[in-house]
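Q: Could you predict the 3D structure of Type II toxin-antitoxin system Y4mF family antitoxin?
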Amino acid sequence: MDPQQIGKAVREARRSMGLRQDQLAGAAGVGLRFIVDLEAGKPTIQLGKAIQVLDALGCTLTMDRRA
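A: Sure. Here are the predicted structure tokens for Type II toxin-antitoxin system Y4mF family antitoxin:
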């Protein structure tokens, strides 16, 4: 998964919950700019904050090893 795909998944999850970006930012304890950058697929986001956002959305991050 690349940063663009992660951003798209976060945006879709947020929208499916009926949240605005600022609402998600507040729920996750991050700034609005971080949500904007994350959803835009910025490749240099902070992983810890991204995990906070995923947690606020009720999502988890899993990692699988490629063959």
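Q: Anything worth pointing out?
A: The chain has a mean pLDDT of 95.
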